[in-house]
């Protein structure tokens, strides 16, 4: 496994690029980490009305949609793990 | 029609002063009339990079406060006809002048020169505001590192907010060995992230250190950085110069390495 991982190791430039992309979007929209926490909390609250989710490991971030450039619209991306889909209270 | 260009970066130590010195000198060698203004009041350095530190009598703050005439403060570079330096004050700080005063100063200068080049201090405070106030064009210098690019992005936003119309990018200190290995972002990556047009690429070159030691800008010399700066000057003067092809995998060893390393990133590198 470790040998395989050695060959598939992500190049550091790719890590830098990925980090920057996320970083710059939150810099540009001037969205503070506290505000992101609040948004995350509220989203969790709304979703948990309908299904059981793992709010501790959910993740939200602002990233870009289409190709890069200065004028592309950012999107809010949320990754919310669902614990139990069977008990959805949608009626 | 004169151009007022501010050389800025946000982050310190990425090469604003070196770029200013080389671009100013290079444009003068292309026959343009150039004045370099050191806007880094309190931490002046453009004079030493240019090798003109022993000739300073008056400075920018003296001119603005009316202690001398503009002509008295301008230092003529004897090696390059048409090149002048307006040094910063070393004993004052950035808050002693205002953007309005800078605009007035530049208005007085720009009709006598083809290019007014402002060396901006690091940061986004008063000194930055002073430096960009009179500029119609900006050159943002960055290195291919996360911190420098982040600051450059902030600077681009501030320049746009201050209605500096033409904003271009110089990627400085590019290391081809690291780029090939996949351990440094490529110029395309940086341009892609910042989303502004590319003006030039300056490779990491030890000759820059040597030139700074000697107080003689290296633009136009046979070194890689010297060539790169000269190309930038041509582009600023309105001539289209293709990005030079450098760092192609020419050596036998690289070709062999290419065969064995599937992950080996082969990059064509241009300046």
Write the layout of secondary structure elements.
The complex is a heterodimer of chains A (91) and B (271).
Chain A: H1 2-7, H2 12-29, H3 33-47, E1 52-53, E2 59-64, E3 74-79, E4 82-84
Antiparallel strand pairs in A: 1-4, 2-3
Chain B: E1 3-8, H1 16-29, E2 34-38, H2 46-50, H3 60-64, H4 70-73, E3 75-76, E4 83-86, H5 99-110, E5 115-119, H6 126-133, E6 137-142, H7 146-161, E7 166-174, H8 176-181, H9 187-194, E8 198-203, H10 206-214, H11 224-236, E9 245-246, H12 252-260, E10 269-270
* Total discrete domains of chain B: 1
Q: What's the CATH topology name of chain B?
A: Rossmann fold
Mean pLDDT of chain B: 92
Q: How many DSSP H or I helices of chain A?
A: 3
Percentage beta strand of chain A: 15-25%
Count the helices of chain B. How many? 12
Tell me the major beta sheet of chain A.
2 strands, antiparallel
Estimated radius of gyration of chain A: 17 Å
Most residues in contact: chain pair: A-B, 18 and 24 residues
Shape label of chain B: globular
Low-confidence stretches of chain B: 262-267
As laid out across the biggest beta sheet of chain B, the strand order is 3-4-2-5-1-6-7-8
What is the number of E strands of chain A?
4
Q: How many runs of DSSP E, i.e. beta strands of chain B?
A: 10
Rg measurement of chain B, Å? 19 Å
* Quaternary organisation: heterodimer
Compose a concise summary of this entry:
The complex is a heterodimer of chains A (91) and B (271). Chain A is α+β, with helices and mostly antiparallel strands and 91 residues long.
Quickly list its features.
heterodimer, A: 91 residues, alpha+beta, two-stranded antiparallel ribbon, 4 strands, 43% helix, extended, B: 271 residues, alpha/beta, Rossmann fold, 8-stranded mixed sheet, globular
């Amino acid at each position: 496994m470790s040998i395989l991982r050695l060959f598939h190791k992500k190049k550091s430039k790719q890590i830098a690029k990925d980090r920057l992309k996320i970083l710059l979007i939150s810099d540009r929209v001037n969205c503070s980490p506290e505000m992101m926490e609040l948004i995350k909390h509220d989203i969790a609250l709304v979703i948990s009305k309908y299904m059981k989710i793992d709010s501790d490991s959910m993740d939200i971030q602002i990233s870009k949609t289409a190709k890069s450039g200065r004028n592309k619209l950012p999107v809010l991306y949320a990754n919310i793990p669902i614990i139990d889909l069977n008990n959805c209270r949608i009626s | 029609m004169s151009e007022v260009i501010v050389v800025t970066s946000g982050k310190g130590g990425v090469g604003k002063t070196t770029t200013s010195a080389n671009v100013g000198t290079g444009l003068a060698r292309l026959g343009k009339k150039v004045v370099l203004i050191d806007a880094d009041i309190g931490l002046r350095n453009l004079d030493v990079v240019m090798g003109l530190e022993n000739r300073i009598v008056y400075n920018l703050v003296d001119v603005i406060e009316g202690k001398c005439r503009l002509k008295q403060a301008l230092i003529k570079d004897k090696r390059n006809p048409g090149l002048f330096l307006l040094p910063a004050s070393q004993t004052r700080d950035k808050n002693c002048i205002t953007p309005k005063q800078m605009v007035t100063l530049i208005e007085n200068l720009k009709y006598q020169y083809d290019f007014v080049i402002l060396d901006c201090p690091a940061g986004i405070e008063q000194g930055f505001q002073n430096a960009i106030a009179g500029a119609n064009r900006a050159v943002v210098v960055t290195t291919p590192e996360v911190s420098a690019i982040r600051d450059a992005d902030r600077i681009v936003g501030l320049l746009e907010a201050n209605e500096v119309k033409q904003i271009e990018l110089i990627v400085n200190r590019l290391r081809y060995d690291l780029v090939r290995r996949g351990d440094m972002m490529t110029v395309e990556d940086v341009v892609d992230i910042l989303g502004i047009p590319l003006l030039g690429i300056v490779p990491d070159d030890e000759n820059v250190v040597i030139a700074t030691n000697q107080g003689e800008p290296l633009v136009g010399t046979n070194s890689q950085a010297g060539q790169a700066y000269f190309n930038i000057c041509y582009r600023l003067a309105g001539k289209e110069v293709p990005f030079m092809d450098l760092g192609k995998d020419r050596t036998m060893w690289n070709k062999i390495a290419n065969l064995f390393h599937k992950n080996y990133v082969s990059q064509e590198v241009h300046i």
